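Question (not urgent): is this output format expected?
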Amino acid sequence: MKTFGHWLSSPWRRAALAALAGALPVPAYPAPGLWWWAYAALIPWLLLARSAPTGKRALYDGWAGGFGFMLSMHVWLVPSLHVFTLVLAALLGALWAPWGWLVRRLLGGVPSRGRAAAALLVLPSGWLAVELVRSWQGLGGPWGVLGASQWQVEPALRLASVGGVWLLSFLVVAVNVAVALLVAVPAHRVPAVAGLVATAAAASAAWVWSPRPDADGQARVAVVQAGVVDGPDRRFDREEQLTRRLVGQDVDLIVWGESSVGHDLEARPDLARRLAALSRATGADILVNVDARRSDRPGIYKSSMLIGPQGPTGDRYDKMRLVPFGEYIPARSLLGWATSVGKAAGEDRRRGTEQVVMNAGPGLRVGPMVCFETAFPDMSRHLVEDGTDVLVAESSTSTFQNSWAPAQHASLGALRAAETGRPFVHATLTGVSAVYDASGERIGPSLGTEASTTAVYRVPLADGVTPYVRFGDWPVHAALLVLVGLGLVEGARAIRPRRNAPAPLGPPARTVRESPARPGR
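Got this back:
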């Protein structure tokens, strides 16, 4: 009878199992939202990489697991990118190959107590390094960061105010490593339990000592969600109709979704006049998003524009971080073929150059972001540093309407709010729209993908500075220092045997194959 170990001896079967193990964390994210599952979802992947017969095989286990994680996290891209989704998952999955090697190096065989303790620090640090690299916008950005699965857990949101989503990722991985140690090496209960206790202590400390946002008044913010409407003109008509429902409701700001205006307002002054009339009728400025070719410069931009009673106020933010393949194609000369197999961007959008804080009425400073940018913790942090009172995201996931993407996208607002101590308004074209207070707790009902309506939210304003805004991405920096320290230790161990090798005591002895030189030669 063949054993499971013999079955795993096939490289292809092992790679398939690693890919399945890598996909296991995905149910922890919305829409399933099984947040608790994140604390055990990495264990099969850890145990598989730990059992790799060689370091090279552990690299492949890490790569295959990363492929499974990336593919399952972005499976909703398949209708748009088709086979290219597999290519992207394979390229990004390679980032986890060194992490697989680290798992085997620290947990393989029967690890010493020192190696087991080191694993509780090094493996979460290695995971954070992977998340940092793939968070570069050119590689797709930080969609699916592991800590983002904890968006609805109040203690986790308090931790996010201290170290951002990065601290959550570190602690989630640490718990997985500790439990994997308990399963695979029961003799090492002490370091494993110590890791679990340290995680609980960190969460408790954040709960008790992390500063809470100070209340500082409130604003009435209205979200206009048009729903699925074909064509920019019909969409504008629907948004105008919905906005007129807000007359007499004493709102301070009205927010439309991403691509809510499909024409440049300078080229279409009639649309600008209609928006100004809406602002006068409702008594509030309107934040719209223009997705169009600009008349004052070449190229297509996605721009958040504030409209007042007299028309555009001059406050404009051009989207800086574009969606790879959706809004531009990286290295188009090399990867441009993606347009022939899916719905990749036929023309690259143009980028903005700086973030903008807008004055939307008396005493209300708004920091706009557009869609994909809400995945980047640094963007909301910089807006708060610049004096933002309310973070506002204009978004659209209409291409992925029947997938998990809209719910997952909306959940990011809770993390950005908790990290910065500022309320967050996530207004979408077709759902899911949601609003969060400064601690990351949702305010009022969310607007699902089936809704075409308006909603008014009483948004409590807040003051003060969170540790994350003050100190930035310190968990990532600490993780990199841990990995540098590991590299120095490993390098010292590699050098030490050569330095300590004893010198030869005399000339080498002859072997039987050696014979003395014959006379006369």
